[in-house]
């Protein structure tokens, strides 16, 4: 308990899935959590469910002005921002995403949310954390490490997050900012996005998950709490000697 006690934490894409699981865990460990999401109804409901340590703020992560407003309001209200979890992301805007099927509109939509959203989050966090210190955790994917021929735009976006994380981390060390920046790389997780992925790959939800189970050496896909636990570790003082690192939470998928 109390691994992030009194830490002011902003989690994007926090209305469901990994973001919501992370918010719930951080609150249990003593943090004050601002849940940010484009879905105001789901975000508000999640914050109400989590209690007085949870607050919802609407945020389109691709909008620079909204980032300025949200982070500025957090600092004005709480005096600082201690932890940023860049979790918001999208998988696709169409049914297919190979090099031959992906049009420029889908490519740009995915990069805008998954790459520019993380860039804007890191930029705002560094601006406000460089005096007081803090931790940034970026959600990437195993798709950043292995080839993803059926998800070329998504894989490229998560590879950009992986590289950006390392660049932010070293920038902060060179400037002597007390900021750590690390990334997490999940396998397909049982969330709404995971279900979307299964239907893209296989066309059928159940058979899609069955095929994934057969591919993962540990025998089962991860759950949101598995990723939340890794985010908590990286955000806590237990990871004080880690920056520019990547935690791969994939049941052995990338080891095969």
What can be said about this structure in brief?
By secondary structure, this protein is α/β, with parallel strands linked by helices.
Provide a descriptive summary of the structure in words.
Helix 5 links the parallel strand 5 (134-139) and strand 6 (179-186). Helices cover 47% and strands 15% of the residues. 45% of the residues are buried. By secondary structure, the chain is α/β, with parallel strands linked by helices. The model has no long low-confidence stretch (mean pLDDT 96). A seven-stranded parallel sheet has the order 3-2-1-4-5-6-7, sandwiched between helices.
Query: Radius of gyration over alpha carbons?
Result: 17 Å
Instruction: State the end-to-end CA separation.
Output: 35 Å
Strand coverage percent: 5-15%
Say how many strands there are.
Answer: 7
Number of helices: 8
Detail the poorly predicted runs. Answer: none
Keywords: Oxidoreductase
InterPro entries: NAD(P)-bd_dom_sf, Sc_DH/Rdtase_CS, SDR_fam
Organism: Sneathiella marina
Family: Belongs to the short-chain dehydrogenases/reductases (SDR) family.
